Task: inverse folding
């Protein structure tokens, strides 16, 4: 399935567009200002059931969030590289 | 043969992304690649024949038309975005040979490409 | 695996070059081949005349270091002309190319990661 | 009073921020992608009563809109220059 | 004495605008100008003491602190935007000496400046 | 009246330089003194090495023409260093300056028009 990379903040239309694209079993990774999604209580409701959500830990922490504030799985750059290996398709 | 989608979400006037998407798409024919272009959000404003960035000194969208015809590059726009801007069928420049895709078809549509580049 | 990362926005002003560099490093560590395609304003990142403040990171130097580790750095030539960057200004280990090279990278890479503008 | 210049599209948060700033007797000028506002039926409800709305004709037409689609007064660059002369303060 | 406001609406990490707003503001003291800085929208994330762009290799926000103290540059943030990101008073770095302005005070507040530059 | 226009984003990629140039022309016609302050990535607009395609407009040339008509073109020097633009590359009629010059322009201009990034 696909890895969808969301790098813009929740206030940008393109982020919503990308989240709508995710099919069950796709993975969504929030990076850069996209990590603001990871702190949204309702983030899981923004995607179809069965979509797995991740956020880049470095970008989340740098923006002043605490790891425990994340509603999604945090991964580091090595984890991002791993997601790239696993998913055949990248949408970004 | 691999399929490549160039999707543009930025406004057609005053930024380079639609022209760059087509320049990229046309470059794909040198390899065994099949490109397509998709307009979403404000990029759909491009399809009106009255949309002319050259009026304010920017590069014309129409410079893509002869290559779209030559290569038969498929161009898509999202129905709901066309509706949002009240773009009617008879306003659309025929040279785009525009295909419409609805919002709920989008996930399957985008996944049908091997590579996706969004501008 | 061959992974290509395309960047589209200027360095420093936005963090995309930093993201690309960090990701390239992580991919290298896991044994992958990495290419970076610099498109539009991101071509500024390969300009060796760029002089950041001393307290700031030097992005062109970091790119050159990556190229020494085997990362291919491709610069869209037309984009570079539009930004006043000549052949003599590009960092060592980078190459001017264009959309044909982009096509080859899209065709040959196992993964193509675009950082949208 | 002030001339407030809105250059980003209606989908951007900063546009809403700028429209909220307008006080009665201020003038708002839509330019660049901001002119998309000029084609919105409800644009006058986005600002306080007494705020005058303008859009840059060149940018409106270039985006494919017809002059008659505008809900606000269209001005050309000369008209923009005139607005600059009249208003002591510019917010942009 | 003229009053100048530098307002920032862009995210504090990964873009230069907050640092550029302060660099601009501090430059104003060479003239008979009185600068202030306002954080709106996502820029308010800057005020948390845990917000550290230097963790991802960007310039630190903290480099502004000594000049804020030296010049006593007033720094404001919008209350509703702080609330949106659930930023609590005890999380705010004291070096900002942050003043809060509410959304309905904003129009009068911004109009009280002679020149306004938004980043 | 003295009007200053500040631009913050790169030429070509975005239309802000075009907007600034058209507005400057309109203001000149009405008899005003115009200054343009190039900040952040907009400094690329004053690089005479910029080579657009023949079908495209030449923004640095247009700026030079404006300067011949009396428009002051100020380039933020630190911004230029960050984008690899040296003294020898700037168009005729433009000057490297910095935030002190920005302060002087803000103080002395009757109107200061910022085109936000």
Result:
């Amino acid at each position: 399935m696909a890895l969808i990379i969301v790098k813009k903040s929740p206030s940008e239309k393109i982020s919503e567009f990308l989240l709508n694209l995710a099919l069950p079993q796709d993975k969504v990774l929030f990076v850069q200002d996209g990590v603001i999604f990871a702190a949204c209580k309702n983030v899981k409701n923004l995607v179809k059931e069965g979509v797995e959500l991740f956020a880049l830990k470095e970008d989340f922490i740098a923006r002043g969030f605490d790891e425990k504030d994340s509603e999604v799985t945090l991964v580091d750059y090595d984890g991002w590289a791993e997601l790239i290996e696993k998913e055949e398709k990248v949408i970004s | 043969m691999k399929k490549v989608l160039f999707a543009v979400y930025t406004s057609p006037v005053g930024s380079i992304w639609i022209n760059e998407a087509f320049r990229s798409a046309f470059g794909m024919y040198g390899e065994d690649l099949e490109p397509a272009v998709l307009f979403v959000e404000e990029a759909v404003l491009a399809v009106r024949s009255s949309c002319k960035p050259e009026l304010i000194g920017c590069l014309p969208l129409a410079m893509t038309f002869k290559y779209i015809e030559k290569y038969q590059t498929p161009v898509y726009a999202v129905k709901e975005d066309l509706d949002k801007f009240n773009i009617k069928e008879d306003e659309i420049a025929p040279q785009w040979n525009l295909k419409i895709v609805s919002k709920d078809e989008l996930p399957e549509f985008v996944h049908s490409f091997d590579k996706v580049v969004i501008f | 695996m061959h992974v290509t990362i395309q960047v589209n926005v200027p360095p420093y002003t936005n963090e995309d070059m930093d993201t690309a560099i960090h990701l390239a490093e992580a991919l290298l560590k896991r044994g992958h081949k990495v290419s970076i395609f610099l498109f539009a304003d991101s071509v500024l990142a390969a300009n060796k005349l760029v002089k950041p403040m001393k307290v700031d990171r030097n992005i062109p130097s970091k790119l050159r270091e990556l190229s020494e580790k085997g990362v291919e750095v491709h610069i869209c030539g037309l984009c570079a002309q539009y930004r006043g960057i000549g052949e003599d200004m590009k960092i060592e280990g980078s190459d001017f190319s264009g959309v044909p090279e982009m096509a080859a990278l899209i065709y040959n890479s196992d993964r193509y990661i675009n950082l949208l503008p």
